[in-house]
Amino acid sequence: MIALIDYDAGNIRSVGNALARLGAEYELTADPARIAAADKVILPGVGNAAKAMESLQERGLCEVIRNLRVPALGICVGLQLLCRSSEEGPTEGLGIFDTRVRRFLFGMAGDNSCSAKNIADATQELSPAKNTKTITKASQEPFTANNSKANWSAGVEAKVPHMGWNSIGNLESKLFKEIPGGSFVYFVHSYYPELCPDTIATCRHGETLFSAALRWENFYGTQFHPEKSGSVGAAILKNFLAL
Amino acid sequence: MVAKRIIPCLDVKDGQVVKGINFEGLREVGDAVRMGAQYARDGADELVYLDISASKEGRRTFAALVERIAREIDIPFTVGGGIGSVEDAARLLDAGADKVSVNSAALANPALIEQLAGKYGSQFVVVAIDAKCVEGQWICTTHGGSRFTDRELYSWAAEAQERGAGEILFTSMDHDGTKAGYACEVYARLCGMLSIPVIASGGAGSVQDIVDVLTAGRADAALAASIFHYGEIPIPVLKQALRAANVNVR
Question: DSSP secondary-structure letter at A175?
């Protein structure tokens, strides 16, 4: 059984519709016992991360989510709640993904939050136990699928919210089985998870390279909305269901 | 880089997509869900459904239609037309719409934008503006361009952003239906002053018109209706042409 966590934080219906299109049965639930008994768990979410976190706490769902051993997928704000903290609020998260969620700055000309130095600094904060992956991924050449198409616009425009279709790269997970790098998925967000050793997909908005997806052990998260990302999104959800 | 979006707009009355042609009235062009699903398969990036029913009955039909659209279509869609209150918007968002677009109601009651953004987040709120150029000034209109308001386009767009709009959908009523191209200079100015995405609407007649508004016009998205509904420009052909013109599209 797939538990789709119903905690009054947005796009539950869209995710349910996408699961139904794939022929998957799911249960909308906020019951900790049902969530603990599920084979797969999806934590959706849109809107304000701090409010969503409160909503999880009010329903007493933080521990049951932390203790999950089955594949679990956080989508958008659902992913953000699985991170250490978010600047939106600000709020603490569940601390499963060892990264912070930060706000995009409009324009971002001076924003170097993705520089190798900052990533190295951020990585030093990681606990030794979790810092098992190298950070080579983050220090590689930035993903450049569309940079060859430098066009009429001299400056890099980065509007906030980051809304629309953007390409993802550096795909490293069964979640992206048979999904080519450079595929477009749909994003709607003003806050982004920083790159970290748990990053399994990256995306660029303006000057900022951020985590489009994260994974730690059985936990997965997508900052984009697979349920609204056409056939690519459907394939990603299908891959999750096959884990 | 976020891709430029192509958005077919479907005017809906009693579940059917209609399009007014040369003031001869409305002509049905097809089933709203089936057409939307076909556009999604063809590579449309988003859809806009506008309810043009005047009756209560029509409104109920539209909400039921939104549920069907949400079940069957796997790309984002915005709904608009006659949304006058947070409750109206809530009904459509609960039915599965990704965004709502408000127009006249926001002009009459600008606080509606804050209420919607406060409750759902800016990303759910599209402020649609229909304006006409009068002696060099772009004046906001309602009722399909037939009534002028005391609002000027640029200041209203800035205010809408300030109040929490997530996108501006500007239709030039001078260009709408002419197929002579979009009001590119107006979009360029809007994009230069706003930090939120701007959707261009009104005037699409050729592939080049769409290239122009997404490049020189700097718009984030191009919306059109008849050129898509009547198969004048198939979306795959348009996407190909945009790629050839170095426009970043999906």
Answer: G
When scoring B45, B74, B193 by the number of chain A Cβ atoms within 10 A, the one with the most, hence best to mutate, is B74
- Rounded to the nearest angstrom, the gap between the alpha carbon of residue B189 and the centroid of all alpha carbons in its chain is 19
**What's the number of domains chain A is made of?**
1
Look up residue B120 and give its two tokens.
């759902």
B 19-58 near A (Cβ less than 8 A)? 40, 45-46
Domain encompassing residue A171? 2-241
Q: Minimal Cα–Cα distance from A67 to chain B, Å?
A: 30
Is B11 among the catalytic positions?
yes
Return the residue matching tokens 């990053």.
A199
* Residue in B with minimal Cα distance to A227: B74
Q: Which residue of B3, B71, B166 is in closest CB contact with A17?
A: B71
Check CB contact under 8 Å for A164 and B218.
no
Q: Per-residue pLDDT for chain B (250 aa), expressed as one digit of tens each?
A: 899 999 999 999 888 888 755 434 566 778 899 999 999 999 999 999 999 886 777 788 899 999 999 999 999 999 999 899 999 999 999 899 999 999 999 999 999 999 999 888 888 999 999 999 999 999 999 988 889 999 999 999 999 999 999 999 999 999 998 999 999 999 999 999 999 999 999 999 999 999 999 999 999 999 999 899 988 999 999 999 999 999 999 9
Show the domains of chain B with their CATH numbers.
Answer: 5-238 (3.20.20.70)
Supply the CATH number for residue A120's domain: 3.40.50.880
Sheet holding A191-193, edge to edge: A91-92, A83-86, A97-103, A191-193
Considering the entire predicted model, what is its pTM?
0.87
Reference A199, options A177, A179, A222; nearest CA is A222
